[in-house]
């Protein structure tokens, strides 16, 4: 039986898996830009930065699998290609090495007199050895991350956040021109939360969470969904509180340094308020945030490799993934970033639509019609977005593309997708009878 304390531990584990380095940096920048319009801005951020990942997690739990399972109504090769692209992009070629590099740059470099390539290699090696140690103990992930690492992380973040509220370094500045009205501030926060791309991680981390539940004896789908729902709400609450606290640091520090830069805002506040101890606390928070995310990503990619080949053991797959992540973090992260970001922006709308369709799948008599038509349009416009990011659009087509609604907000796929969904739903027969039957069950 999964006890209440286990549910809280799982919720903290989910929080730690989601809360990586980017999540530490974005809210202070949002707070600095929003100024006196902080409340609507952070509410918008929470809708997409917390709400979307939570929905992704629940989608995985409801269907019992990750993106491959969610994409089952699509042609097999499409589902396989999307799964491969997702795992590679947020795995060893982007997400995993990024956790190590950010830990080094924000958690280690401030304490070094003369950073060098050798110090980067040493830092990354120690980081990935720690990652591998935790990954090779999958049955203890809940115990180690949920019961020990996350509470330390929350204490460190709470100390910084509460202090910034009690003793702000500066008065609250006027909002940036893009945040001047309540509506503008909410939309900007909404877009910043959208661009965290955390819904992608939900499909990966959701699988890790399901495996954790199975290792604890929870195998029945409905029981898994109930536990994940409760734990997900706990994680979402913790994320919300932390984002508000970090945003307040940015809001209450911006006027003192005049820079809209997440790392600079955090480091300046920590150093000014607490001196070297503050920098150490910040460094600890960054290390723990990145380490837990790295553990989740390495575990997920290793398990994905095992689904491709039954002859690969978890240990071998984990070692391979860790070594690959270490190599990329040392020799080629910046180059890969320029490629990975367009790939992630291509995948993100597809994942969002997949999550939405998963929750509505019982409404369709012919799921394949709705899935393939709706996602076909989403994939097309997402591909156009990737081409635009890579500056590969031909001149005439680029002019047309730039005229699409919401293109500046990276939401140009939204209206065409909604139109495709409406038409395909009609052809796919969304019936009131099926809705009634679902409610009755």
List key phrases describing it.
mainly alpha; Hydantoin permease; 79% helix; 441 residues
Helix coverage percent? over 70%
Uncertain residue ranges = none
End-to-end distance, in Å?
25 Å
Tally of distinct domains: 2
Strand residues, percent: under 5%
CATH fold descriptor of the largest domain:
Hydantoin permease
Query: Kindly state the mean pLDDT as a whole number?
Result: 87
Q: CATH superfamily name of the largest domain?
A: Hydantoin permease
Please name the CATH architecture of the largest domain: Orthogonal Bundle
Largest sheet: none
Written as H for each helix and E for each strand, in order along the chain, the element string is HHHHHHHHHHHHHHHHHHH
CATH class of the largest domain: Mainly Alpha
Helix/strand structural class: mainly alpha
Our Rg estimate from Cα atoms comes to 22 Å
Number of separate helices: 19
Number of strands: 0
General shape = globular
Give structural notes.
By secondary structure, the protein is mostly helical. It has two domains: 4-331, Orthogonal Bundle (Hydantoin permease), CATH 1.10.4160.10; 335-441, no CATH class. The chain has helices at 4-18, 21-34, 38-63, 67-70, 76-90, 95-108, 117-135, 141-166, 182-194, 198-215, 221-257, 262-274, 276-308, 314-331, 333-360, 367-389, 395-402, 414-427, 432-440. Helix 1 (4-18) runs antiparallel to helix 10. The mean pLDDT is 87.
Brief rundown of the structure:
The chain has 441 residues and is an all-alpha fold. The protein has helices at 4-18, 21-34, 38-63, 67-70, 76-90, 95-108, 117-135, 141-166, 182-194, 198-215, 221-257, 262-274, 276-308, 314-331, 333-360, 367-389, 395-402, 414-427, 432-440. The model has no long low-confidence stretch (mean pLDDT 87).
